[in-house]
Amino acid sequence: MHIYFINALSHAYIQASKCLRGLAVVVLCSCIFKNVHAVVSSDMLLHIVEQCTQTNREDYCDKCLAPQATAMCPGKAICRATSEIWRETSDFVAMRDIKMCGCPAPFVHGLVLPKSRVTGVEDPKRPEAIWQFAWDMATERMSPHEIALAVNPRTRRSQNQLHVHLVRLKPEFQGKNWEGVTVHTQNLTKVWELAAGLALANAMQDYGVLVKSSNKGGYVIVLTAQSPEALFTQAYCTP
Q: Given this structure, which CATH class describes domain 90-232?
């Protein structure tokens, strides 16, 4: 019994030592990586909305992976490592798309995102007010006939936070009388509702939405199974 007790005690000591070593590693890692916040690449825009808009927040440079340049976070000076917020309201954030980095001044590619979590075109929580806000932001940088507001289909996007692209139409689509899956509207108050009805009528389960000005006044809503950003807009400053 005595030998058995000693062996059992020895085994318990060994196991306890392993546990303590493991705990030490965990504590060490937590100290080393305390400022590292893993973000899935498809959630980067959501991260910017939730962590990067308020530069006066405590530990801003530690919590935000793409800080605004004005915050002067160490090691975050180049364009592609930062975010540029154009405007923020209680509901939406307007910002520069990373595709603007390295481009000449006339080129514009912005994004408008809801501050609440909304995945995309398929989300029933998608806000109607995002379209008017996006259009107003676009008119500050482009002429109305140039403007394209685009949301890509679920299967053609890289981010899982709803975002409206603010871009210029390709020249061949400016002033064009559009055909295909389209609907005309006088205002931007029911874009999602009109798009959903149009998609249902045309048996489109996954679709992208493009909004542009109409030659007849008002706006044209265009639906496509492809990426409207890629098909119709100047998304990049280089071919």
A: alpha beta
Euclidean distance between the first and the last CA atom of the chain, given in angstroms as a whole number:
82
- Rounded-to-10 torsion of CA 121, 124, 127, 130: 0
Confidence of residue 175 (pLDDT cuts 50, 70, 90): confident
Burial (CB count within 10 angstroms: exposed 0-12, middle 13-18, buried 19+), residue 221 = buried
CB atoms within 10 A of CB 173: 18
Rounded to whole angstroms, the Cα distance separating 178 from 48 reads 35
pLDDT at 205 over 80: yes
pLDDT digit string, tens, across residues 120-169: 999 999 999 999 999 999 999 999 999 999 999 999 999 999 999 999 99
Closest CA to 80 of 55, 97, 63: 97
Domain ranges of the chain: 1-34, 37-83, 90-232
Residue 152 tokens, joined: 């890509």
CB atoms within 10 A of CB 230: 14
Amino acid 14 reads I
Contact 161, 48 (CB under 8 A): no
